[in-house]
Design brief:
heterodimer, A: mainly alpha, MetI-like fold, 2 domains, 2 strands, flat, B: D-Maltodextrin-Binding Protein, domain 2, D-Maltodextrin-Binding Protein, domain 2, 6-stranded mixed beta sheet, 4-stranded mixed beta sheet, membrane (chain A), cell membrane (chain A)
Chain lengths: 332, 448
Amino acid sequence: MSSVSSESVPAAPAGEETAGKEGVRSGWRSRRHRWDVKFSPYAFVAPFFVFFLAFGLFPLLYTGWASLHQVELTAPTDMNWVGFRNFSRLMSDEFFWNALRNTVTIGLLSTVPQLLIALGIAHLLNFKLRGSSFFRVAALTPYATSVAAATLVFVLLFGRDYGMINWALGAVGLDPVDWQNGTWTSQLAVSTIVIWRWTGYNALIYLAAMQAIPHDLYESAELDGASRWQQFRHVTIPSLRPTILFTVVVSTIGATQLFGEPLLFSGSAGATGGSEHQFQTLGLYLYEQGWVNLHLGRASAIAWTMFLILLLIGLVNWLISRRLAKSAEGRG
Amino acid sequence: MQIKLVRRTRSKSAVALSATAALLCGALLSGCASDDPAGGGSTGGTGAGQKGKTVLKVGVFGAFGMKEAGLFDAYMKANPNVVIEQNSIERNENYYPQLLNHLTSGSGLSDIQAVEVNNIAEITATQSAKLMDLGKVQGVTKDAFLPWKWAQGTSKDGKTVGLGTDVGPMGICYRKDLFQKAGLPTERAAVGKLWAGDWKKYLEVGKQYKAKAPDGTKFLDSASGLLAAVMGGNEKRFYDADGKVIYKSNPAVKEAWAVAAESATAGLSAKHQQFQKGWDQGFANGQFATVSCPPWMLGYIQDKAGAAGKGKWDVAPAPKPSNWGGAFLTVPEAGKNKAEAAKLAAWLTAPAQQATLFAKRGSFPSAQTAYADPVVSGAKHEYFGGAPIGEIFSAAAKGVPVQILGPKDLVINTNMADIGMLQVDQKGKSPEDGWNAAVKAIDNALDQ
């Protein structure tokens, strides 16, 4: 019996095979050893997957199931099958399209400047600086600040009657701006909060990648007479390509799920995102449908639509990175 | 955190403060966890030295005030075998969905759960099977309560699942100094007479004020605040007696809309959104001369207007009796100590305790027998120029019509105030455009 099973494990060391023939006891031991090798890795990764099943996959699937029903939070167990109606009605739901539009524009308004500024800051931090670790920590402090605290301060800064920004505008002779009520102004304000919070984080990621670039590259570029700017463009940026792609993906996911900043930017007004829903993102609209209007089915459909949008973004990202890898190979 | 001392029944107000609390938590990184169990489930365990005692958990939203007024301590003193723990969630928007979730699953509930007036109709209509009938509990006297408050907490099949805590009879808070500068009377009886009987007269006074207004000031704070005040005086608002949504065709709502919108189009409003930072700053800067104020708002005004506003504010009767806000206590059937919890709920809502709550926190009793209590009837508010608030609000409370509530009052109300009227007030949209925007948002919100 032991010889049969030992044959089925080709990787077993030769010493054990001979030992297996000696008796049942050592056969048992070798079997245990094989099980150990075979199954303990699964045991080690199991906690993650158990948690993922309980708090990731199950809610995901259950949300999908709920999205096919009419469910109210007042009685979550009473589910009426409605098929794909919750999805098809999104097509004609102007509040949904408005939220999607806002999510995209706020996403662009926040992500693009954020990554550009981060790249610049990382480049500066990469020079030999006095007190460089101070600046690195300083760059990270906004990230460590709670969204609620940061947003509240920004709400005060962007206040209409007594805000500091309008005060500064007034000092240079400009008219005050009703930040929260304008479509662009409110989206700009929300984006500012996002930029402020995340730029330092991305800068540090870029900085780490920059420090991994071999110094010889810069030396030889310098010998070839490349200026600082040319070095940045032709050495730093190409070497950072995978990192940039990573930050773009992470920021895009963050932008799609944007929730806390617009929620708190409207202060006590809840999830409406302004009187004309001018900064209501998809996350806020989902929240409003589920937890204010109590329509869990409709909220689930929005959640799944957001999930599908993210999958789509992931797919586009994968295609781009494949193309980039190919073109890099071609050049090499 | 003195702002936490304010009793707020309107869910909006809770948000502003929750945000502030979050800020303070973030800034101080201490303290908040102990008195504000985040997530607010039912974690409060039995500590050492409490063995053998009955632990009663009370779930509330905002700063409900019962604990702060010392009622819990008084009860524990009289009943040494009982320990009361409070779970507080700042925002009713977060508190209410969680309460529904817990009621459905039958777990995670506190022994007593507070419910806001805008949610009580939905609770009595959909959750009454999961809540105790408190009407039959010993110590609860139906006649002690305002009849309409009792009716609001009672389901169609006659189960009284919610015992009333406070109500929000309306007054008008005004700035004497600004009134004087604008050439208006400042004495509260005379001020009340200016607009007695009709909200349109209130607008007329506003126009007089505007003609001679001190620089940079407006007559009232916000159009949506006025909307809430005018609508609160009607028997029918959003629903009829059969539970049908009628706000679109309800002349009372249309009229309230017209009055509130006129305050915006006539330039009387300071264009604020209530319970927002800008509104708070408006109080601090004396930017507006009047606010429609239920008693629970007095403490809020006092906090925001601060020492600089002392002696400048006063309270006059509103044009018409009206109600804004209020709350109830319920006891879930799933609780382990139902009988003890019901006893506590009955005690907390009894006239004597409601009078204490009014004296300490300004939450006006829904127990009408408390109005005769000198603690209530003789109450004067020092900050508001010694205004006899007991007298003013008792009179207002008696005139409030029995309002028909509906399950989606909160959603309809929020969209009217924060979408429609806010567009009129802040974005200069026409009253019709604002109305249409509100209707569109409400239609979407009500569609299951």
